[in-house]
Automatic annotation (TrEMBL):
Domain VanZ-like: 46-128
Any one Pfam family match given in the protein's UniProt record, by short name: VanZ
Keywords on record: Membrane, Transmembrane, Transmembrane helix
Signal peptide location: none
Name of the molecule in the record: Teicoplanin resistance protein VanZ
Organism this protein belongs to: Aquabacterium olei
TM helices/strands, residue ranges: 12-33, 53-70, 82-101, 113-134, 222-243, 250-272, 278-299, 306-325, 349-367
Length: 386
């Protein structure tokens, strides 16, 4: 078994969360199923749609591929990895289909379970094919040369970072504004209790205003630029904390800029129509992108430990700044469209990725600092030392 932590395991858990969210949405109206309705044998629906059938098949294919790769990277044989993947996919699908009995808006189906299992099997077959071609071993050798052994979860964070940008943040690249959502949840949970009066503001209409209401003179362009720069530099610091060669760092940092601009443009086009795809590029935003790119030049030559320290500081700065951002009426309208419209069914998980990503990245960076990096043989070591 490799000493390197595989990114396939955290990506597998993310895929499971995405599948569970899509299968059980909307997550409301939970009730204990009637004994006359519930059955351990899944029913066969009278009418089925080809689009749903294809979605059930394709939805489990990535999970099957990633999960099988995770088992292979853990040192299990090909037959065992494939069997565990198919059984896990079938068990997950069966459990979620049974859970649909408790939701009024969802209907379980044996056809869905069969197609989900078949999708997981196809994914496992794809992973076994890639393994037989030697591509997984080739990637493993490259990773030993390019990244530190503890890079598994860090690489997974880098992979999912663009997904969080698909949900429109209050400011470009400004992920992590979690408190308003927690505030609303706490108000709902404490309804009709004495605790609610401590949480509910004097004017309930300002519940979503957040701490940005403290800035009575408006939101200075400089703070907006610093927020955008921090949102770009945090994943850059994370990348430099796991990468060894300088050339790889240059590639990752350049890719971060391209991905940030591309995904933000795509998210704007999806929410405000393609004609407005570039309206997010205001002068403060462009200045923030420039500051982030200039910071990337500095990060290339720094040690991995120092990059992790800077990542912690910048993540804390991003969290503070984004919670100071004032409420934007266009953002509020877009938020309502996501929470009530067609986007939430397919991309709703990106909302939580965007909200939680900075906090998970902060936890990983702190763990990276608390655990010494093992000594690497000189024949393998490339790039700046930690």
């Amino acid at each position: 078994m490799s000493a390197h932590r595989s990114a396939a395991w955290p990506l597998s858990w993310l895929a499971i969360a995405l599948i569970a969210y899509a299968t059980l949405y909307p997550l409301s109206g939970w009730h204990w199923p009637d004994a006359r309705v519930f059955s351990w044998t899944l029913p066969k629906l009278r009418q089925e749609f080809s689009g749903d059938l294809a979605g059930n098949l394709v939805g489990y294919l990535p999970l099957g591929a990633i999960l099988c790769i995770a088992h292979l990277r853990s040192g299990r044989s090909v037959p065992v990895s494939a069997l565990l993947t198919v059984l896990s996919g079938a068990a997950l699908s069966y459990a979620l289909e049974l859970a649909q009995f408790t939701l009024p808006a969802r209907v379980p189906s044996v056809t869905d379970w069969v197609l989900n299992t078949l999708g997981a099997a196809w994914g496992a077959l794809a992973a076994v094919t890639v393994h037989a071609l030697g591509l997984i071993d080739g990637w493993h050798r490259l990773r030993e040369r390019w990244f530190i052994p503890q890079a598994g979860h860090g690489l997974a964070l880098l992979w999912v970072w663009p997904l969080g940008l698909l949900f429109p943040p209050p400011l470009p690249l400004g992920q992590g504004q979690l408190w308003p959502h927690l505030h609303v949840l706490l108000v709902d949970w404490t309804a009709d209790t004495p605790l609610q009066r401590w949480l509910l503001p004097d004017d309930p209409l300002t519940l979503w205003a957040g701490t940005g209401a403290l800035l009575h003179d408006g939101w200075p362009p400089l703070l907006e630029s610093l927020t955008v720069a921090a949102g770009l530099l945090v994943p850059m610091c994370l990348a430099c904390a796991v990468a060894r060669p300088r050339r790889l760092r240059l590639l990752l940092l350049s890719g971060a800029v391209v991905v940030a601009v591309g995904v933000t443009t795509l998210a704007t086009a999806l929410n405000f129509a393609p004609v407005h795809a570039l309206t997010w590029m205001t002068m403060p935003t462009l200045v923030g992108l420039m500051l982030g790119a200039m910071g990337a030049v500095v990060l290339v030559g720094l040690g991995r430990t120092l990059c992790a320290v800077l990542g912690v500081a910048l993540t804390l700065a991003l969290i503070v700044l984004i919670h100071l951002a004032p409420t934007d009426p266009y953002y509020a309208a877009t938020l309502a469209a996501w929470e009530q419209g067609r986007f939430i069914r397919f991309h709703g998980l990106s909302r939580w990725i965007g909200l939680l990503w900075p906090y998970v990245a902060l936890a990983w960076l702190l763990a990276r600092l608390l655990h010494r990096e093992p000594r690497i043989p000189a024949a393998v070591r490339r790039g700046p030392s930690a």
